[in-house]
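Bit of a strange request maybe. I'm writing a small parser for structure token strings and I need a real example to test against, not something I typed by hand. Could someone generate the tokens for this chain?
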Amino acid sequence: MTKREPKSHEVAPDTRVKGSSLAQDALRRLRRNKLAMLGAVVIGFMVCVALSADWLARYVTGYSYEEIHSQLKLLPPGTRDISETYPLYDGDKNVFDLVDLDRSGVIECHHEQVSVKGGRRRTSKKIVCPEIKALNETYETFFLVLFNKFDSAKGANPANAAALKTTPDGRIYPHEFPSLLTERPIHNPKFQGNPALVGMRLFNAIDRDHSGFLTFQEVVEYARFMRLDSEKLVRDFDANHDLKISRAEFPGAPKLRTFHLGTDADGRCLLTRLIYGSRISLMVGFLATLVSFLIGVTYGSVAGYFGGRVDNLMMRFVDVLYGLPFMFIVILLMVLFGRSIYNLFIALGAVQWLTMSRVIRGQVISIKNEEYVEAARAIGVPVRRIIFSHILRNTVGPVIIYSTLMIPAVILEEAFLSFLGLGVQDPMPSWGTLINDGAKVMQDFPWLIIWPSIVLGLTLFCFNFLGDGIRDALDPQVKKS
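Reply from user aminoacidic:
Good idea to test on real output. This should exercise your parser:
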């Protein structure tokens, strides 16, 4: 049986040309725009970082955005310290001998008794371990101030002796090490029998690389076991709930984590605050744009559809608001209704809808006399349905374009308000507050302003690239290539 040949007026099934919708054509043009796609990828990455800020803080940076390390202020990237919010432990059971100061074989704890009004006493939920408390006090009174009090730079090159007297070198040499304090480092008579914490044995124990001097990170590394938290230790590791930590239950000393981008003026992790700042800045940008979108689309569509006196009156009101400085209106709203993140959304959205309303009004005026709109009026479709179901549906392109261009403008305005102290309030960070904090010390600690500025600038560029790409993709005048 021979295969039938197709007739001249027939088209073979495999050679038929498939059509494409306007949305598919726009998406194809958008994919060809490399800058727009790069912007979309970067924005998507920023959104993922903002949404997973809590997870990143716990498992990547190791610090919370409000965790303060008072002894580590304004230190450069790479500095290390323990995390008080999300501590990890090394599991070294030998450290137990350093913490068990009374050699009882367990670390005993108890509920602290506190006084209340009327002279009565009650059991507080706060847990105290005397041995850990003594170690904490020792760290605060000795190790915490070691470099501040005893680093006189006497061990450095004596070529400039006058400058060395006032310029510490960041090292503690044996002759600088406070011998009087090392004889009694544990300031509690009950726990004076631990030979690992007296005399030059302490210096040699800290100097693990045998360099002959102590660095700040060596002191921090050695003193980890002195910085245990009684509450977390008992809560997480007291398996039998007897308020006693045995050697088997002991988790070891806290591990050190790295401040990858350094610390700010309060000793907080800059990377963690930058991650949480992305959440605030992007949320302000998206939500404020949504507020302006709802107001501007509704206002502009009503003005454009009804026209005449209604349109004239509504647009003159817009012209009056245009004559007022936007930022002054936002500042006034923030002062009147208080400084909070929710008021910031409303204040920024309440002044950004003006241009959106003009854009929508122009689109509605050009569409409202189309045949399908006249047909809807003729069959008695309600005005509200005509506006929102027939007219606005055909203005999606310009709305999407303008919205993508409005988001970076709102983020920039939020950064400016936070820079002035009228935006997000401490300790909650945003990119604007981080830039403001970095600007105060930018000459001596430039990394505090460099990283927030790079992230903010990159995000704004990517939003503009994406907005331009969407505008070109939705432009019906663009020819297919």
